[in-house]
Amino acid sequence: MKKTWTALAIAGLAGTALVLPATAPASAAPTGKKHCVTNVSDETTSCYGTFRQAIASATSGRITDAPLNPADAVASKAFEKRINAITELNKAGATQLAVTLSIEYDWAYEQTNEGSVTYTADYGCDNTNDVDWQVNWVGDDWNDRISSFHNYSNCSNIHFAHVDFGTPSNGIYRSVGSMADTGGLNNQTSSIQWV
Asked: pLDDT tens-digit profile of 28-77?
């Protein structure tokens, strides 16, 4: 039986929830296209040959000169500021672009040897620890692969070892250079929640 994933956005007003319909996960990345962008809001995935191309797609062309090496992007406060600026423009009503929730990496310390996946959504996270977005299945191509990650748009996230948020989990983190250093779940993520 093929697993499906859903996105859940918790609206800030009166605790109402918007549940998007479940669809089949995206297929594996095409050969040579190791850097993917998954929009949690509309459950679409596109893959690219370089990290820079993936970021250009994730930001709707607002950032076309991202570092080629994701480790350089994570280390750059200027890059983080540019990613987060899109979230602020959306809050101000200036744009309606997808915002970056997190970038997940196949290798520790944001290395791109085997790829990255950038998760985006219609808006970022609020200032509470409730669940703002989630995927209950990361898909065949990313199951049991994530080794490091960095969050944006006021988000932190929780990685779960099983589909549908089955424990164990690694706790709430903003950024982790090596999941082996946080008590486990290195190459063991099957579902994610952003808070």
From this structure: 455 567 899 999 999 999 999 999 999 999 999 999 999 988 888 888 99
Whether 159 is in a domain gets the answer yes
How do the residues of the chain divide into helix, strand and coil, expressed in percent and rounded to 5? 20, 30, 50
Q: State the residue for tokens 């219609």.
A: 122
> Sign of torsion, CA 15 19 25 30?
negative
pTM for this predicted structure: 0.82
CATH number, domain with residue 83: 2.60.20.10
Domain enclosing residue 176, as ranges: 32-194
Output the CA torsion 127→132→136→137 (10° steps).
Answer: -80
Given a contact cutoff of 8 angstroms between Cβ atoms, the answer to whether 137 and 3 are in contact is yes
Q: How far is CA 164 from the centre of its chain?
A: 16
Query: How many structural domains does the chain have?
Result: 1
